[in-house]
């Protein structure tokens, strides 16, 4: 039997090592895992569309438009929770500003959707309605590519990715971490929210973007388009999950976990933590931006409220409730919290925020490893 190895695949000091150490091979997914992925793909790509479009509305099996929209929205939230798990659960970086990247991706897609309205707006102008209302005469410079779906899709990745890279470069080089890093990320998000509230920035001010009509020339409010966007969100989530599994099971992922556990020791072994933290931080931000771009056409609006501090905190809550450093846990946490939130806002509209706070406290005190950790402990107790 080979000796135990640390996060880098090297035997611990004092262990019997007779030659160069090789990383322990780890499978991306076992047969059960790939089966679960295949089932998930079939559910979002085949079963859900059939239940929503082919089953009659009066049937108990019909998947209503309300639940299609709700599921699509939560799938986007689950992508954010997965992105949070990569930096918080596996790298030890708690961000309270990921709502900013989510909103930037949403705004980039929203700009394209606003241009697709054309002359169907209230003022029948080539300019978006809010620009006509504010007496703008032409599009600002940052709207130059907004009529191109390809260009705006690239900006969904480029703008949040560049912002995350620049911010992370200076923060990580300055060795800002822990609670100080969390506070700075929240301050960055709050500053961006105040900026986007201003009318002169050209992003719709307080109202943001809404009243979307078309996407790629197709009506956006039809049941078929809603199902398509929901299914696309599910497929993107599955793809990101497989990618995240590949990352955390690679040598790169083992270095990230070593940085989380003992960053100073990682430096002494010759690794540069800044490069690893910066790369995973930027990737996580871009994942949130993709989620925001998928979210906007499904909910029909994007405004600065997506940048509020509470929005970013909720992403961390989803990851904590589901279970950090598990990948599947934050996805489950996003579904559990948001479905519960949807029910509580209808049944107890004045108390759902208290429920959310009580849930986070309960998880911290009684389920520090989240839902996944609770399930694992119960399995271990079985004879």
Description:
With 383 residues, this protein is mainly α. It has helices at 31-54, 65-89, 98-117, 129-133, 149-173, 179-196, 223-248, 251-268, 273-299, 309-322, 328-347, 352-366, 370-381, and strands at residues 209-210, 214-215, 218-219, 301-302. It has a two-stranded antiparallel ribbon. A two-stranded antiparallel ribbon has the order 2-3. α1 (31-54) packs antiparallel against α7 and α2 (65-89) runs parallel beside α7 (223-248). It is globular and about 65 Å long.
Q: What is this structure, in a nutshell?
A:
With 383 residues, the chain is an all-alpha fold. The chain has helices at residues 31-54, 65-89, 98-117, 129-133, 149-173, 179-196, 223-248, 251-268, 273-299, 309-322, 328-347, 352-366, 370-381, and strands at residues 209-210, 214-215, 218-219, 301-302.
Q: Calculate the terminal CA-CA distance, rounded to whole Å.
A: 27 Å
Shape: globular
Query: What's the main sheet like?
Result: 2 strands, antiparallel
Pick out the low-confidence regions.
1-5, 7-22
How many β-strand runs? 4
Computed over alpha carbons, the radius of gyration is: 22 Å
Give a quick set of tags describing it.
383 residues; mainly alpha; two-stranded antiparallel sheet; 13 helices; 4 strands
Secondary structure layout plus pairing:
Blueprint: H1 31-54, H2 65-89, H3 98-117, H4 129-133, H5 149-173, H6 179-196, E1 209-210, E2 214-215, E3 218-219, H7 223-248, H8 251-268, H9 273-299, E4 301-302, H10 309-322, H11 328-347, H12 352-366, H13 370-381
Antiparallel strand pairs: 1-4, 2-3
